[in-house]
Amino acid sequence: MTGVHWVLASLGMVGAGLMAWLFRAPLRRSQQLREAEAARVAFESQREALSRTFLEVASLSGKPRGLRWLAVDFGDQVRYARDRQTGLLAAFVGVNIRFEAIPGGDMEGVAAVGNIRDGAALFHYEQGGWGTGGKTLFNINPDEALVRFQGQFEPLTSPPTP
User: Fold this and answer.
1) What region, left, alpha or beta, does residue 81 occupy, with left being phi > 0 and alpha being psi -120 to 50 degrees?
2) 4 φ, ψ (degrees, to nearest 5)
3) Which of 145, 128, 127 has the alpha carbon at shortest distance from 136?
4) Could you read off the pLDDT of 91-121 as tens digits, one per residue?
């Protein structure tokens, strides 16, 4: 190979590297959009089972102290976001929660125990499946949760439609 050929080959490799670098971000963004849509579809198809799992896990948390979880009613409001640090997807779901006092506990006899509590239930999407740690953000809806945790979660650019 002559010197000109080496220069042309080097320029070609630099050009190919530059093109790969330029298209990396759009390709990653496209992959993230496909993942988000697949996650949304999976969430909707698993919604009933996820609500049961959420109630089971949350009931075992011991929070709020002195109360037993009776039921969690999932609303229609779901907001999807991506964790800024890990890149994992999350779903915030509007919920209404009913409790009862644990007999002999601190909350027995408190009239407000029977009040339905609003909140946002948190779910996470990892390795192709949804899960939950039973985390509830009380007294806020999913939109308010995203505002409150905007440093940690980036809302998906366009809210998925059911």
Assistant:
1) beta
2) -65, -40
3) 145
4) 999 999 999 988 888 888 888 888 899 999 9
Residue 24 lies in a domain: no
Domain that holds residue 104: 33-155
pLDDT attached to residue 110? 82
Question: What's the structural domain count of the chain?
Answer: 1
- Residue 72 in any domain: the answer is yes
Task: Report if residue 1 sits inside a domain.
Answer: no
Cα–Cα–Cα angle for 21, 24, 27, rounded to 5 degrees? 155
In-domain check, residue 27: no
Q: Is the overall model pTM greater than 0.85, yes or no?
A: no
